[in-house]
Design a protein that fits this description.
Length: about 110
């Protein structure tokens, strides 16, 4: 009995270590720039690690990283939203609001 409780405790603690970084799902309808990156259309998981946004293509599981500026706002975002604009004939991500938090990530151009 002691061994099984110890194992359950270890599994619980190890899963807490991996639960620290939340990812957010976004859908890109067309190719778009995110800072210095050029992203293809598709579904992505976005994870924030310090001043880096990690985009993981859910189809290929390939990840790319962009430098970002992290801003904390006064209000909590109800859902994850991508703010984009057209510049020089192409689309670019200006910011991503992370749903359930008051964090916004901005991209430099």
């Amino acid at each position: 009995m002691k061994k099984s409780l110890l194992l359950i405790g270890f599994v619980s603690l190890s899963s807490l270590a991996f639960a620290g970084t939340k990812s957010y799902e976004i859908v890109l309808d067309s190719p778009i720039k995110a800072g210095a990156l050029q992203l293809s259309a598709g579904n992505y998981k976005v994870k924030l690690e310090g001043a880096k946004a990690i985009f993981t293509d859910t189809r290929t599981n390939k990840s790319v990283t962009a430098d970002v500026t992290v801003k904390t706002t006064d209000r909590k975002f109800s859902h994850t939203a991508v703010d984009s604009s057209k510049q020089n004939g192409g689309d670019r991500i200006d910011a991503i609001e992370l749903g359930g938090s008051n964090t916004e990530i901005d991209f430099a151009y």
